[in-house]
Design brief:
about 70% helix, globular
Length: about 425
């Protein structure tokens, strides 16, 4: 039996409003606490430290281990320099304002790319996405995750408005702040209509370091890519990081306590190969989704790609799951449709509820490390992500079936049609 759509809408509105209010209170509490707030010091302070030492951000801002301290590309230090020019607390306020503006632009873009049915459903989806715990966690810690999310979503609307240069700048800015947005380029290159935006992005990737050369010497790029990055690709935190690698390592070690001792959490070469295969599979699924939709529903392949990035990243913390917002958006939009079946609705509701709980939330008392439900509880984020990705694919069974039929009939020519065939029409 299906719940009435109205009941679903107003239930999500009520729960989301309460959680958003709680998040706002938490954010205000941390801001009023000033530099003494531990979570601000442990996260935002490392970011702003790089801005205070533009010439030596990696040597002057070390952390207690290889995966803390200033671990961002050199241009991120230039950004942090201006954000933190007037101290930590003012920098926190500036970063919060930037995050609010960028998040508002992203939500507006999501409404345009995948509009829910009806005004009430639209508000429910918007508030439901804003209520997930990674949003408040990112605000409280002052991270760059909202800019990362925008660097994937905003180019889609900009390309629809034929503003390819602006789309390319957003992609490049996202890369030089936190690398992730480079993964958008394969999706753009796979369709001729997006080549201009892809070219603008590649050009901006090269121009930005040249513009910043007076402040950021070239050796910093060598330090980042060859000294800081390699350890980050080999380490994880079982039971704390929210991706496939820590789950596998947790099971392999039969751990009974949560750990954040990175020296003991190095991934084996085989496990590194496995998570790279997972990232490659997610990219193939995203490309397949893009080809199956033939230029429509352009948000779906990007949402799949973001899901793959989060499942791959060995150090995907809970607040990084802001990048899962497009998947949550698509899931809630389907949940609030009259034709949403109860099985699909229950899976979407579970995935959304799992992301409402902060990743750092203490494990409930009955769920001891030896209990059957302990592992599902600490892995609820990646499980929710996999469910939402599966629902996106399942909702397009007909289109995937048509694509598979074309592949069997015409072979690889079908898959390469995006490169050599006529441009597809953009979604409105």
């Amino acid at each position: 039996m299906r719940l009435p759509v109205t009941l679903r809408v107003y239930s999500i509105l009520l729960v989301s409003s309460v959680l958003i209010l709680r998040g706002l209170i938490d954010l205000a509490t941390h801001f009023l606490a000033g530099p003494s707030a531990s979570r601000i010091l442990s996260d935002l302070n490392f970011i702003l430290c790089g801005g205070r030492h533009l010439d030596t951000p990696y040597k002057s801002c070390p952390g207690p281990d290889a995966v803390t301290g200033f671990i961002y590309p050199p241009p991120a230090a230039f950004y942090a320099h201006w954000v933190g020019l007037w101290g930590l607390q003012t920098g926190f306020a500036i970063q919060t304002v930037i995050s609010v503006v960028v998040l508002a632009l992203t939500v507006r873009a999501l409404i345009r790319l995948a509009p829910p049915e009806g005004n009430a459903a639209r508000w429910a989806v918007v508030l439901g996405c804003l209520a997930i715990a990674p949003v408040s966690m990112s605000f409280v810690t002052g991270h760059l995750n909202f800019i990362m999310l925008a660097s994937f979503v905003l180019p889609l609307t900009l390309m629809g408005k034929r503003r390819s240069a602006a789309a390319g700048v957003w992609i490049a800015a996202g890369f030089w702040l936190k690398l992730y947005s480079i993964m958008l380029l394969p999706l753009l290159l796979a369709e001729r209509r997006n080549w201009r935006a892809a070219g603008a992005g590649i050009l901006a990737l090269l121009i930005i370091p040249l513009i910043l050369l007076p402040w950021l010497p070239l050796h910093l790029y060598h330090d980042f890519f060859f000294e800081r990055m390699p350890p980050l690709q080999r380490m994880t935190a079982p039971g704390i990081a929210q991706s496939i690698a820590p789950v596998l390592l947790y099971i392999q070690q039969s751990a009974t306590t949560l750990t954040i001792n990175f020296k003991d959490c190095v991934l084996t070469p085989g496990m590194q190969l496995l998570i790279r295969a997972i990232m490659a599979a997610a990219l193939v699924l995203a490309l397949g989704q893009q080809r199956a939709m033939r230029g429509k529903a352009v948000l779906e392949p990007v949402a799949m790609l973001l899901g793959g990035i989060l499942l791959y990243a060995p150090l995907a913390w809970g607040y990084h799951y802001v990048l899962a917002m497009p998947l949550v958006w698509l899931g809630l939009t389907r949940l609030l449709r009259a034709d949403c079946g109860w099985v699909r609705g229950a899976l979407i509701l579970y995935a959304w509820a799992a992301l409402l709980l902060p990743s750092w939330m203490s494990v409930p008392g009955p769920l001891t490390p030896s209990a059957l439900l302990y592992l599902p509880f600490i892995t609820r984020y990646p499980v929710a992500l996999i469910l939402l990705m599966g629902i996106v694919i399942d909702s397009r069974r007909v289109e995937w079936g048509m694509l598979w039929h074309d592949v069997r009939r015409e072979g690889v020519k079908t898959l390469s049609a995006g490169l050599f065939g006529p441009p597809a029409q953009s979604a409105p």
